[in-house]
């Protein structure tokens, strides 16, 4: 049974062929483009389930492709995984803030790419939140209306900012967020959060989570995410 379709926008023929072969073996239908312009056209016409987008494209580069697709109401909801070369941390951050869902770096393992794809394709639904506003994430239980967090049924005393940060991350397991995205989603008139202080807040949160601190992962050069639970 075919899954997909997946659109591969990559100018290197060898990588396009490898990706196509691997995805076809996994049962995905694929389509491909070697330029940004062609990729935009195909995505608009075919509406794939997911896009694998190389950043280093001739002509219209990957960041511009991402920007264009996110600005189009017909394509803005299609998930995008960026394919980047190592050392392009600034481009990764820009791409994520532009609306890309995740990234993999070259050279990459096909198994890692498939895992990232499955995670992104599952993101239509966040961690289950029942009508009472309660969130279960592994050993962590969050009661949002009562502003209570427990770890293995033991209460944890969090500041307002730590609470908001934890709630934001664990309701989106596997998602990578830049520090600026965290600031934009956590801050409010009662929360004094800056990009630099995000690191401080994460350190404080991890200390209070003890052994469960490993659930909050650092994505080097980019930001943070809550570990995806198996």
Overview of this structure, please?
This protein is α/β, with parallel strands linked by helices and 230 residues long. The chain folds into two domains: 119 residues, Response regulator (Rossmann fold, 3-Layer(aba) Sandwich); 93 residues, Arc Repressor Mutant, subunit A. Helices cover 39% and strands 23% of the residues. It is built from eight helices and twelve strands. A five-stranded parallel sheet has the order 2-1-3-4-5, with helices on both faces. A four-stranded antiparallel sheet has the order 6-7-8-9, with helices on one face. Helix 6 crosses helix 8. The longest helix has 15 residues. About 2% of the residues have low confidence.
Element pattern in H and E: EHEHEHEHEHEEEEHEHHEE
Total number of strands: 12
Specify the helix fraction band.
25-40%
- Structural class determined from secondary elements: alpha/beta
Largest sheet: 5 strands, parallel
Straight-line distance between termini: 24 Å
Write the layout of secondary structure elements.
Layout: E1 3-9, H1 13-25, E2 28-33, H2 36-46, E3 50-54, H3 62-71, E4 80-85, H4 89-98, E5 102-106, H5 110-121, E6 134-137, E7 140-143, E8 148-151, E9 154-156, H6 160-170, E10 177-178, H7 179-186, H8 195-209, E11 216-219, E12 223-226
Parallel strand pairs: 1-2, 1-3, 3-4, 4-5
Antiparallel strand pairs: 6-7, 7-8, 8-9, 10-12, 11-12
Helix pairs in contact: 2-3, 3-4, 6-8, 7-8
């Amino acid at each position: 049974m075919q899954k997909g379709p997946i659109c591969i926008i990559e100018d290197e023929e060898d990588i396009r062929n490898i990706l196509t072969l691997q995805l076809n073996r996994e049962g995905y239908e694929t389509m491909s483009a070697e330029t940004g312009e062609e990729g935009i056209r195909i995505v608009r016409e075919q509406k794939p389930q997911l896009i694998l987008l190389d950043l280093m494209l001739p002509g219209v580069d990957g960041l511009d492709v991402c920007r264009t697709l996110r600005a189009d109401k017909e394509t803005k909801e299609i998930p995008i995984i960026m394919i980047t070369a190592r050392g392009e941390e600034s481009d990764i951050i820009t791409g994520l803030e532009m609306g890309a869902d995740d990234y993999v770096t070259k050279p990459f393992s096909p198994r890692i790419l498939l895992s990232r794809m499955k995670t992104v394709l599952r993101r239509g639904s966040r961690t289950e939140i029942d009508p009472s506003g309660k969130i279960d994430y592994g050993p962590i239980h969050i009661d949002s209306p009562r502003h209570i967090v427990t770890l293995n049924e033991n209460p944890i005393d969090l500041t307002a900012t730590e609470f908001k940060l934890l709630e934001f991350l664990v309701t989106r397991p596997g998602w990578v967020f830049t520090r600026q995205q965290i600031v934009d989603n956590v801050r409010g008139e009662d929360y004094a959060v800056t990009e630099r202080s995000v690191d401080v807040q994460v350190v404080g949160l991890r200390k209070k989570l003890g052994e469960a601190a490993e659930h909050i992962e650092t994505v080097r050069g980019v930001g943070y995410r809550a570990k995806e639970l198996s």
